[in-house]
TrEMBL record:
Domain Porphobilinogen deaminase C-terminal: 240-315
Native organism: Lachancea mirantina
Pathway given in the UniProt record: Porphyrin-containing compound metabolism; protoporphyrin-IX biosynthesis; coproporphyrinogen-III from 5-aminolevulinate: step 2/4
Enzyme class: transferase
GO term, biological process aspect, one: protoporphyrinogen IX biosynthetic process
Family named by the database record: Belongs to the HMBS family.
Gene Ontology CC annotations of this record: cytoplasm
Name of the protein in question: Porphobilinogen deaminase
Length: 333
């Protein structure tokens, strides 16, 4: 592409229509325009199947593809006016294996990846330890409920779907069945609602989701011009950690919402990645927890190997058996 063409080029961003998704698209837009002042980004927000079906847990009607498929079609749209150049996703919502013709162009700097607890505004309680037996915790994530059942077997867990504002409204309703809900910290931070967080969980209570807190930018494979742009906004620390986490999940063959949790840290001075993982049975009674560390010289290759090595160790210790026994169609939240 010539300098003149580049100067006139518009980067067309696609994303979901929720308030959080739009905020995420603007985050990438601002990063690109800051690095490339001569470029202009437009944002197209689309309501996907995952946004439209709010009455069922995701695993019951298509898994993570419900967030991605309709947007992916726009990357190869024949009408150039409707075509988009990149898709901004919550990385945790992206399948670990993408269809042919698509790839992750970059991973953005990661916001706090931990899960958090939100109590109703009128609640006298400050944490899960304070809740009476039988209190209802709202979450549609098997990963979250499985880990919490392990530590809090006397609490109850029920599904709660919808965007952040919808879930908070359900929690604060005087007639709510929920004592509290569990959400990703990053989502609340991105939409300016961090003040609602009652407690942030460390790994002693809950390992976070693969890719949580980071944005994954999906592109057409071999789109060299877009790749050059995204290289400037890619975050090395987040890329190393998230590639390893996704490799762990892919190797364990864990799909949407299965109870695989992670915690990772990359020390850029020593080039050492420490990856921790956990697999928990849905009822919380069985768990396999392990960690693996290795030096990262080649970011993509070594991060993927690190995830594979930890997955093989965990599988040998029973993690694969736990995952194989999960029949998602029969799981009750």
């Amino acid at each position: 592409m010539s300098d003149k063409q580049e100067a006139e080029h518009i980067v067309r961003i696609g994303g979901r229509k929720s308030k959080l998704a739009v905020a995420q698209s603007h985050e990438i837009k601002n990063m690109i325009e800051s690095e490339f002042p001569h470029l202009r980004c437009t944002i197209r927000a689309l309501k996907t199947l995952g946004d439209q079906v709010q009455s069922k847990p995701l695993y019951s009607f298509g898994g993570k593809a419900v967030w991605t498929k309709e947007l992916e079609e726009l990357l190869y749209e024949e009408d150039k006016e409707k075509r988009i150049d990149i898709i901004v996703h919550s990385l945790k919502d992206m399948p670990t294996s993408l269809p042919d013709g698509f790839e992750i162009g970059c991973v953005s700097p990661r916001v706090d990846p931990r899960d958090c607890l939100i109590m109703a505004k009128s609640s006298p309680y400050k944490g899960l330890d304070d809740l009476p037996d039988g209190s209802v915790v709202g979450t549609s994530s098997i990963r979250r409920s499985a880990q919490l059942r392990r530590k809090y077997p006397k609490l109850k867990f029920e599904s709660v779907r919808g965007n952040i504002q919808t879930r908070l409204s359900k929690l604060d309703d005087p007639a709510t069945p929920f004592a509290c809900i569990v959400l990703a910290t990053a989502g609340l931070v991105r939409v300016g609602l961090a003040d609602r967080i009652t407690q942030r969980f460390d790994a002693s209570t809950m390992y976070y989701a693969v890719g949580q807190g980071a944005l994954g930018v999906e592109i057409r494979s071999n789109d060299s011009w877009v790749k050059q742009i995204l290289e400037k906004i890619s975050d090395k620390h987040a890329t190393v950690c998230c590639l390893a986490e996704r490799s762990l999940m892919r190797t364990l063959e864990g799909g949407c919402s299965v109870p695989i949790g992670v915690e990772s840290h990359f020390d850029e001075d020593s080039k050492t990645l420490r990856l921790r993982g956990i697999v928990v049975s849905v009822d919380g009674t069985q768990a396999v927890e392990d960690e693996y560390s290795m030096k990262i010289d080649n970011v993509r290759q070594d991060a993927i190997i690190c995830g594979q090595q930890l997955a093989h160790r965990m599988a040998k210790n029973g993690a694969k058996k736990i995952l194989d026994e999960i029949n998602l169609s029969k799981v009750e939240q």
